[in-house]
């Protein structure tokens, strides 16, 4: 894994340079992709425990709106404060929702998480005096590390913030996956009964994974809000969550680099597909997912993983 | 007193719509153990088929009451075409894989069908108001009620009764029940599982399409109507117990009445009643009202 | 008088018209190796499921080290010091053989102790390899558990339960699916390891030779009832027992 660490550092270095070299629209797109990638990591964390969440949008939206309220209600501008605020709100929400949801698996888990995200969606639309209803709220430009700029320079700062957060999240999830906690979650997916007969409380393991996932999804939400400058209830709609699941599957359902690379590929493809075939891109998404599931169950990243494993042998 | 009557009627009408729209989902889960996310788009296809047939039929100036027959006809056609197509063409390749994978596959099918309906029927709304208008109003408890709602109630009762008869009285129905309870034993007893799966999925699809077709005259049929339906249908089916047909009926009734009460007494809760009922039921009975515990043999 | 490890009184469970357990009463003391025999469907696995909390009895008392455990879940009972292996080996098929044992070892440690360090930490890997060596699985340590043959899977299943350092080890047919020659090898290894660690064991077994040779005591189950309970020589030569278990006197 030390070699993997070197590749990761190299990637971060390249992306750091890319920030000043690439055109503005691409930098914006990449920021979007990074934020989405972090949220996809939350789906990956849960998938490693054998669970599919169709409701990560709940935390994505909650954190995004929390950041928005903090900026407008308390006048906060510093991103390095807003990010923890958003993540904290997401994790708190996850702690409550997880109490019910961690008892379930498979379909129940998937649809309960979906239902919760749809409840938030309903709340965000109905409480329009507070949340701006379906129009959402505009988010002012944040400062990063105390540095305050405007326009494209501000966007660049958010790009670097997102890059750092993404790298940090990737590191965190990788450590988690290699630690007993991560292995126990994988064991739950493999054979839940056996885990119980090893003396480990299965629901608590799922709860832990759920908390980690809620924090990650929240981080993605805050970053998206700061980048786009706007939040709306659609962040909590179940198709947003579905998108995250799609990218996770695209990237291989279990790998960190796959998820992040998948997010970038997806974001780029989506903007083109939407421009040229707005009435067929969902179909293309669905067809692509089917092809991957049926023929490439390891996701698009699996050939890379196979190559990597052969290198290590 | 009249408010109780209104809540009761409202609740019953909404419950019958919920039942019609959810029972196919429960049936498919019970037999194939797959939660068919594409159920929502099958509903939409039924709505579009029904709506376009009614519109075309009415424009041709035919006998107005024929529109009431056009709806189930369209649903039947759509269901019998799509059902086997989806099951044999896609789902069949996923049997035996993790439930998560099957869920994602039905989600993919949903995405494909969403755009397919846009390509087939366009994005402009369809207004198939003719059956709705035709039946006029009835007078209940001092209020004019659209008679179409009672047609919906009738259709739900007929569908429910038909399913009950099918499951209890026909040989194939009993085979289906056997598969629901114990698939391994059924195979050991010589049941052709593939045929049961195709037939059940087709039936479930027809039911979803039927729900859509009969919903069409009450709304403007636009892209995206299937999305909300999935969540609603799932909630109904979860409350009643996945795979239980009686559960779907009881769940629909419970949610319908609670929502009607909310609409009239506490309107702010209306959107959430369905989720509140679901959460409340699950806290007390984690597998739904009629859900069965399946303990893994070790 | 030593404190009993396991006390079961009046244990009863029915599945509809099927009697899975009927007023079973048993006491197991430290140091015993209790063989549990009986025809198919006698309720041997059900007995294990009941005392480990996987099934809930209709009636009866179950105590481990004097503590009442009825209503507790398997992970709680396991945490008290009860390990179990299964009739169909319950492994983590997608993890390697070594990782299966590593996970078992990791669950023994405190919650925060190993939160950030790798599962493959050197001291833990060493401990896992010792267990694998004892069970003859070290050569397969890096293979996915799913690739093991039936005998290997059984051994790994027991090894994982053993790695928990339980005070009572429950085994469900530990040698079924294994060749006759290997059976005695495995049981020798197993019982030596158990004796060295001071572990009491209860094992369900179909092979009467294995039971005769290794058990200090035999329980005979039939139709959910305990038919006989005593020294192997007496119990296994009793004609009523032979009739019940094998259909012949």
Labels describing this entry:
heterotrimer; A: 313 residues; mainly alpha; two-stranded antiparallel sheet; 13 helices; B: 298 residues; ABC transporter involved in vitamin B12 uptake, BtuC; 2 strands
Structure description:
The complex is a heterotrimer of chains A (313), B (298) and C (249). Chain A has 313 residues and is mainly α. Chain A has helices spanning 2-21, 24-48, 57-73, 79-101, 106-126, 128-131, 151-178, 180-196, 202-228, 238-251, 256-276, 281-295, 302-312; strands at 137-138, 230-231. The two termini of chain A are 13 Å apart. The model of chain A has no long low-confidence stretch (mean pLDDT 89). A two-stranded antiparallel sheet of chain A has the order 1-2. Chain B has a single domain (2-284), classed as ABC transporter involved in vitamin B12 uptake, BtuC (Orthogonal Bundle). Chain B is built from 12 helices and 2 strands. In chain B, strands 1-2 form a two-stranded antiparallel sheet. In chain B, a hairpin with a 2-residue loop joins β1 (137-140) and β2. In chain B, α1 (2-32) packs across α10. By secondary structure, chain C is α/β, with parallel strands linked by helices. Chain C has a domain at 6-84 and 166-178 and 198-246: Rossmann fold. Chain C has a 6-stranded mixed β-sheet with strand order 6-7-8-3-9-10, sandwiched between helices. The N and C termini of chain C lie far apart (37 Å). The interface between A and B is large, with 39 and 41 residues.
The strand line-up of the biggest sheet of chain C is 6-7-8-3-9-10
Percentage of helical residues of chain C?
25-40%
Roughly how many Å is the radius of gyration of chain C? Answer: 18 Å
Beta-strand segment tally of chain C? 10
Backbone shape of chain B: globular
Total number of helices of chain B: 12
Q: What general outline of chain C do the C-alpha atoms trace?
A: globular
Structural class call of chain B reads mainly alpha
Uncertain spans of chain B: none
Question: What's a concise summary of this model?
Answer:
The complex is a heterotrimer of chains A (313), B (298) and C (249). With 313 residues, chain A is mainly α. Chain A has a domain of 213 residues.
